């Protein structure tokens, strides 16, 4: 695992956007695993700027997203399909037919199986982008006494519902279940890039970068076993966890 400490969150996003653009330039038909949440928004903004400036071409890129809430359709403004369209896909030259976000409606189990197929289709992701939950979750693989390797339905923890309530009118509106890639799906990606900022992430990042323990109570710690995992944090977060480059 490699840890990169940047001067600011803006620099974190620039570094990651450049990593993604560099991969796309090297392999125009690469497969990207994408993430939602507050963290990746400025990364996507930078990719949009680069695409508009002619510095990166997404016309052949394929994407699969980590997860989707159960019970809200892709047209709902809090669905992850809607998020991806409005924060990235609508503004770049990607073919939406090459993008996949699990369907949050209908038969959830069948939708999870479809996600698993998409994870495998045409080979594993060349790069998987990740955020991290305050409890160390990656995608919606929640802290628990066990983790699941393949795509599945997850019941969200109170901590995750609290953290995501800011996007909804009221806390009761936050879906309590989600379809998510499993830990094995994420670990299978050739490269994993995790971005984190903000003091709410201190306990999770401490567990991830400050010791050698792997625990299902902080699912991100499994990335310690990945051969090409890159953790990008700003100096404020690095200082708060006591990390010295
Ligand atoms: P955030 O969420 O980017 O909104 O902090 C990260 C996550 O829950 O994985």
UniProtKB/TrEMBL annotation:
Key word DNA repair present: no
Keyword Hydrolase recorded: yes
Keyword tags: Carbohydrate metabolism, Hydrolase
EC number: 3.5.99.6
Molecular function terms, GO-annotated: glucosamine-6-phosphate deaminase activity; identical protein binding
Glucosamine/galactosamine-6-phosphate isomerase domain segment(s): 9-228
Gene Ontology biological process terms, A to Z: carbohydrate metabolic process; glucosamine catabolic process; N-acetylglucosamine catabolic process; N-acetylneuraminate catabolic process
Cellular component terms (Gene Ontology): cytoplasm
NCBIfam families per UniProt: nagB
Protein name: Glucosamine-6-phosphate deaminase
Organism: Candidatus Ruthenibacterium merdavium
Gene name per UniProt: nagB
């Amino acid at each position: 695992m490699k840890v990169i400490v940047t001067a600011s969150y803006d620099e974190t996003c620039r570094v990651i956007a450049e990593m993604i653009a560099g991969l796309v330039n090297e392999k125009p038909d690469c497969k990207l695993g994408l993430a939602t949440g507050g963290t990746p928004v400025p990364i996507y903004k930078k990719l949009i700027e680069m695409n508009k400036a002619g510095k990166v071409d997404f016309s052949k890129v394929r994407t699969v997203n980590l997860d989707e809430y159960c019970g809200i359709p892709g047209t709902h403004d809090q669905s992850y399909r809607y998020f991806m369209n409005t924060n990235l896909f609508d503004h770049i030259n990607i073919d939406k037919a090459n993008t996949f976000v699990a369907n949050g409606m209908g038969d959830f189990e069948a939708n999870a199986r479809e996600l698993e197929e998409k994870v495998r289709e045409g080979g594993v992701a060349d790069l998987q982008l990740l955020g991290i939950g305050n409890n160390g979750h990656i995608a919606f693989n929640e802290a628990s006494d066990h983790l699941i390797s393949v795509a599945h339905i997850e019941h969200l923890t109170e901590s995750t519902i609290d953290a995501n309530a800011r996007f909804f009118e009221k806390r009761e509106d936050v879906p309590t279940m989600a379809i998510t890639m499993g830990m094995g799906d994420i670990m299978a990606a050739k490269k994993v890039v995790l971005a984190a900022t903000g003091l709410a992430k201190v306990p999770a990042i401490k567990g991830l970068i400050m010791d050698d323990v792997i625990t299902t109570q902080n699912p991100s710690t499994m990335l310690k076993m990945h051969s090409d995992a890159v953790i990008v944090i700003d100096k404020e977060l690095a200082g708060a966890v006591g990390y010295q480059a």
